Amino acid sequence: EAQVTQNPRYLITVTGKKLTVTCSQNMNHEYMSWYRQDPGLGLRQIYYSMNVEVTDKGDVPEGYKVSRKEKRNFPLILESPSPNQTSLYFCASSWTGFNQPQHFGDGTRLSIL
Amino acid sequence: DAKTTQPTSMDCAEGRAANLPCNHSTISGNEYVYWYRQIHSQGPQYIIHGLKNNETNEMASLIITEDRKSSTLILPHATLRDTAVYYCIVRGSDNDKLIFGTGTRLQVFP
């Protein structure tokens, strides 16, 4: 089954403790992206990747890092999490091209205390 | 900034067609109209997209006006599981990302 898988689904942690949210897709998509969703602000793009070893900043990249060493994986790294990064995070993937629909994972709910 | 305008909320009786309108009066020639929905806090689910022709798939139909300034998503036989927030998104060659507005909250009632 074609899918985008995120782990963990839920995480409660403390300020400053490094964490990684994994994202994996099995559709051989070139394009992958991370979004965060906050009440009243909708979904905002954090980082995206057009292909292996190619990443770029989205609208709200501060406090986040990403890497794309393999086509299927696109982890989101919070080196020193802070409470303002408490949010619902979604990973998405697609074929390259603005006429290609993006497919989303089920989300990761992070709470930073 | 979102380039679309949608009603905040709509109701639909179960089994009836749900017609969700979207205004995108500033759409340009190479921009597609996409529809996604989000059920509670699940990941956004792709529904359908189109450029200028009407489109139909197993989930819905998309009707785009001839001037492309508006469109309607049609769920032909709404069920309770179609209760969700529906997002209409315009996306062109300068937009790798999806810009989600506030969407339409569709409530399907028995």
Which labels suit this protein?
heterodimer; A: 113 residues; mainly beta; B: 110 residues; four-stranded antiparallel β-sheet
Protein architecture, described:
The complex is a heterodimer of chains A (113) and B (110). With 113 residues, chain A is an all-beta fold. Chain A has strands spanning 4-7, 10-13, 19-25, 31-38, 42-51, 54-57, 65-66, 76-78, 87-94, 103-104, 108-112. In chain A, the strands form 2 sheets. In chain A, strands 2, 4, 5, 6, 9, 10 and 11 form a 7-stranded mixed β-sheet that branches. Chain A has a 4-stranded antiparallel β-sheet with strand order 1-3-8-7, with no helix packed on it. Chain A is globular and about 40 Å long. Chain B has 110 residues and is an all-beta fold. Chain B contains no helices and 9 strands. In chain B, the strands form 2 sheets. Chain B has a 5-stranded mixed β-sheet with strand order 1-9-8-3-4, with no helix packed on it. In chain B, strands 2-7-6-5 form a 4-stranded antiparallel β-sheet, with no helix packed on it. Chain B is globular, with a radius of gyration of 13 Å. Chain B starts with 8 loop residues before the first strand and ends with a strand. At the A-B interface, strand 4, strand 5, strand 9 and strand 10 of A face strand 4 of B.
Overall 3D shape of chain B: globular
CA gyration radius of chain A, whole angstroms: 13 Å
Widest β-sheet, arrangement of strands of chain B:
1-9-8-3-4
What is the helix/strand order of chain A? Answer: EEEEEEEEEEE
- The residue fraction in helices of chain B comes out at under 10%
Query: What general form of chain A does the structure show?
Result: globular
H/E series of chain B, N to C?
EEEEEEEEE
Strand content of chain A: over 45%
* Count of runs of 4 or more consecutive helical residues of chain B: 0
Query: Strand content of the residues of chain B, in percent?
Result: over 45%
Unreliable stretches of chain A: none
Strand tally of chain B is 9
The greatest interface between two protein chains, and residues involved on each side, is: A-B, 24 and 20 residues
- What's the main sheet of chain A like? 7 strands, mixed
Q: How far is the N terminus from the C terminus of chain A?
A: 36 Å
